[in-house]
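Build the 3D complex.
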Amino acid sequence: MEQFLTFGIVGLSTAAIYAVIGSGLVLTYTTTGVFNFAHGAAGMLSAFTYWQLTGGWGWPVPVALAVVLLVLAPAFGLFVEKVVLRPVQALGEAERLVMTVALLSGLIAVARWIWDPNVPRTLPTFLADRKPFHIGSAVVTWHQALTMTVAVLVAVGLRILLYRTRPGAEMRATVDDRALVGLTGAHPVRANRTAWILGTQLAAIGGILIAPTVTLDAAQLSLLIVSAYTAAIFGRLRSVPLTFAGAIVVGCMESYLTGYLPQNAYLPGLRLAAPALLLFVALLAFPHRRLRGRDRKLRPVPVPTARGTAVFAVCVVAFGAVLASALGEADLITYGAIFSLGVVALSYVPLAGYAGQISLCQLSMAGIGAVVWAHLGAHGEFWALGVAILVSAVAGAVVALPALRLSGVYLALGTAAFAVVLDRWIFTLPSFHLFGMRIALFDQGSVDVAGPRLFGLALDTAAKQLVFAAVCLALASLVVAAVRRGRFGRRLIALRDSEAAYATLGGSLLRAKVLVFALSSGIAGLGGALYGMQQRSITADQFNLVAGLPIFLVAVVGGLGAVGNGLFAGTAYIGPTNALVAVAPWAQNLVALLPGLAGIGLGHNPDGIVVRFRREWEPLGRDRIALPGLLCVLALLWVLRLGDLINGWTFLGCSVAAGVALRIWATARQTAAPTEPEVPVEWWGLRRAWRPEDREVLARGLAAD
Amino acid sequence: MSAILELSGVRAAYDRITVLHGVDLQVAAGQVVALLGPNGAGKTTTLRVASGVHPLESGRLRLGGRDMTGADPRDLARAGVCLIPEGRGVFPNLSVRDNLLMMTFTGRSRAEIEEIAFQRFPILHRRASQAAGTLSGGEQQMLALARGLATDPAVLLLDELSMGLAPLIVGRLYEQVAEIARQGVAVLVVEQFAAAVLDIADHAAVLVRGRVQRQGHPDGGLRAELSALYLGSSA
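Done.
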């Protein structure tokens, strides 16, 4: 009984912290409509800053607390509101979600940059010099008592603010209808600012309170938020009291699992994964709905032409062949990931781009593909690649079943929870037997991965594997483009635009969702297997949630509706980062920050960079002099590289310079060509002939209201 | 009668498409002006311009003789312009009470606002703790209209008050609008279903393709012209 009480007190103390953090989440969601994935990261950054001020520079605790909670946290909240979220305020839910994921990724990178993760840091508990007191037979420390008191004060304060004051009503009203808020004499921007300041302060309080009881690690502290997510989902993202109830369930569950979970090789991971499992269950069990708002904006999905896609596929293979012949062995392994991770990024296109299903577990699906290939294709059996794709597709279909009940931010949370369960539990399991079959995953360490044998040809060198990965990316791009052009693609877009309308037109939500999840997971599984081959050896960490966030961000920045996104995301994620580190090794931390920064830049290119890139480079592709000229220059440079007359960097630099110069020239030629004078819209069809595309231009212009 | 709300030569556009081509309109205190016209004529845009929600390309917006061209919706709201937008001007996630709390910006206390709203629309009192989005369409419009009563506006702009409502409810709501006008408020009503609003209107303007084609007293001549406009003949 004494042990039970002691674990109960520990659980309640942890629950109090989750409640504070969860309340911050609920506050920002109900008052800005943004589910802040970076909420935990803001708490993490506050905890590190507090450590720096007290442990690092020796500032007195009250001063450090005042600086963090009253100066830095509000300033950070204002920064998030103004720089990160205001540019995407008019965009859809997905874009706002991506911004907070970018912020999460960026903040982890910043923290690792400033505070070396290899140096251990600890924070003392509050009031540690005071003697603990007893409740019955259980011992309660003053830190625990303080934590619980703070939680109660936060709960009461938030309740009064949100439901008893006009600023609270203004904050909640801003989510419903920003325009209408202006019509009631309120200031929506001011309401948002207040919400972000308060939300960040709550995250900071939670971070500082929890930091003394856990390891001060950027990723770990940021992902403690999963427990707070669970609490917030108990509160259906809108009720502070229910969030507190949820926090108590999560805190006590974690504590009692620590105390009473049987000790064997398979269960320690379960304790770590339990909050994520509970989050998954809570998402499915509790009825939830999106906030009723008027801000649903859907972007059109371009339809690729068959010819254009075929040319693109040929270019991908040619690019692979050039890289394979121009790079050295070490670089081949590094840059080969352009194509394998490109395949993983491409898996977002049908799922998120066409069907509008936001998944954060695509790299976990890639991990499943990689591990299946590693074990079944240990001697290069080519059929094992098909099995790897199939198993990943089945895993995707399994995720799709609960996804039927989830959408938007809830689906993102559910898939993130799935990824965390895999990271913390499933991928860490030792081998086990199921129905008489031995199932081995990462063998609690690393697994060696072989290249495939194709028609008797062993793809055992980095160069061959790179070309193979390029061919796979080209084929996968063709498949994804065919899906977009076909009936299934139209169905997916109808599903994205309106699930209700899709169902009333006779479409099966179950079938469409299961198929698209299976398709994209299969593609991700293929990418994972290719990545594993190139790396030669894989660990679970390479496929965890945090590792997957930058790929997701780069894919979103590329434009989720574009088929060319696979190549773009792979190149943008692997190319500049590794090239920059090779040129300037000191820039490694800056490089880790790039995907986050790119994600934050999304507001400037909501259609994605691939679409813009294509628009800007189209003049070169259509120019009958510039394009053949560029191909000749590239062929010449390639020959020089093959003859070892120039090195890889010269080859790369000259290729890029030739491409850019000819693009500028081709654009200038096109601009110089005589064009028709602009005719006002009202006179279309009168002063100039009516064009088929005019209808689309008018429809979009009128729908802009 | 001097005009409280005055639009002169107003042009407005969505991207490259000009929707209003020089609209002139005046509404005096206590007057109900009906702005009528077919779909896409620019009626809603006129109200959005008058409330500051949509910017003008050119022209002037005056309020009580004061030039308010370019003012934002917040300033116009505080100056006495109250827009009840199309499709229920309420905050659906907020309770009825919280919606009324949002009306306190003119300086009236929460208790006063609730008293005015609940006295005029007793059903809202019974629904006070309910989320506005869960009210019926008529109740939502009553809550929206309560803003027109409780905030003492100088100008009330109503956009498609009848949308999705039973004729009986529409009739009652327009009775309230007439009552508001009798208290000296300038009322500009946009309505597709002309019959309901012409019964209470003192003046009517017909907007076609972004231009005021005809305006005057809503007498038989104007009604006949409206029939021709909607039905495509002079029947």
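The mean pLDDT of chain B is 86.
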